Amino acid sequence: AESLLDCANLATLTLADDNMTGTAQGSLELNDLNRLAVIHVGQRACTCVERLELRIPSLRELVVGASSFANTSMLSLTYLPALASFRVEDKAFSNTSLAVFYPLTQLAEFSVGQQCFTNTTLLLPMKFPSVTSFVIGDHSFENARLGPFCGSVLEPPDAVPPPAPSAVEPASAITVPEATANATGATDTTKPAGTERLSEEEATAVVSNPLRSLRELRIGEGCFFCTVVLFVHNLPALETVTLGKGSFHDAVTLNL
Fold it and tell me: What pLDDT does residue 201 have?
């Protein structure tokens, strides 16, 4: 594992193109760097990183260039309460699962290029309660289910900073009823068979601020699948919605 230690005054971390491209695989942990505000990673970098964990209370901007972290299986956004901008270019984190352990309450921009995070299985927009721009490129998150863009459905557990992933004990499962469309087209909120189960951390995200600042929702071609309903409602600032061809191919209802 690689880590940065005793760098108390580090404010900006920049990795140039083609940096950290060795054949040995390992993890990179960037934790508790209390002044680090910006991380910029160039193109085709960090291909030797198998797992990346970020726990940086001061981080405001994360930018990753095209085709970087190509062999990374997991990106853990463990605790980034100040993060305002998350930008990932085409084919970065191409085979990666994205895990957001604590809501990114200051995030305004969530921008992901093409063919990224293809091993992610669930993405909850409610973990980005202040987001204004949510943009996903073609064939990113193609194996993921996308949570609703709407208001609260559960009472939240007490909000406390999470432990490191290695210390997380399995949480008791919480089931969130999903709406289904009946034969007449009306919405039925009874729980269907096989309803997905959310952990307590995921439930915390669902009850966060209902994305009232979201202005732009753009999803490219071949992104996501949604087993029952795609919810987009109660978003007073929303100006633009674009859903690409072949996205949400398992959805039966679009609820706007």
Answer: 44
What pLDDT does residue 190 have? Answer: 36
Spatial distance between the Cα atoms of 166 and 185, rounded to a whole number of angstroms: 45
Instruction: Please return the burial class of 93, using the count of CB atoms within 10 Å of its CB with bins 0-12, 13-18 and 19+.
Output: buried
The reported pLDDT for the residue numbered 254 is 64
Looking at residue 71, the DSSP 8-state letter turns out to be T
Alpha helices in 110-169 (DSSP H): none
| Cα–Cα nearest to 83, from 51, 57, 112 | 57
HSE toward the beta carbon, residue 82, CA cutoff 13 A: 14
Cβ-contact 87, 63 below 8 angstroms? yes
| Cβ density class 143-154: b for 16+ within 10 Å, e for less | ebbbbbbbbeeb
Phi, psi of 154 (to 5 degrees): -135, 155
- State the pLDDT at residue 236: 85
Q: Is the dihedral of CA 22, 24, 27, 29 positive or negative?
A: negative
H helix count then E strand count, the chain: 1, 21
Threshold 0.70, pTM exceeds: yes
CA 173 to chain centroid: 20
Q: Give the pLDDT confidence score for residue 159 in this predicted structure.
A: 42
The H or E element that residue 206 is part of is helix 200-206
Q: Is 184 left (phi over 0), alpha (psi -120 to 50) or beta?
A: alpha
| Spans of the chain below 70 pLDDT | 1-6, 24, 150-210, 227-231, 251-256
| Pair 45, 17: CB distance under 8 Å | yes
Question: How many CB atoms are closer than 10 A to CB 89?
Answer: 21
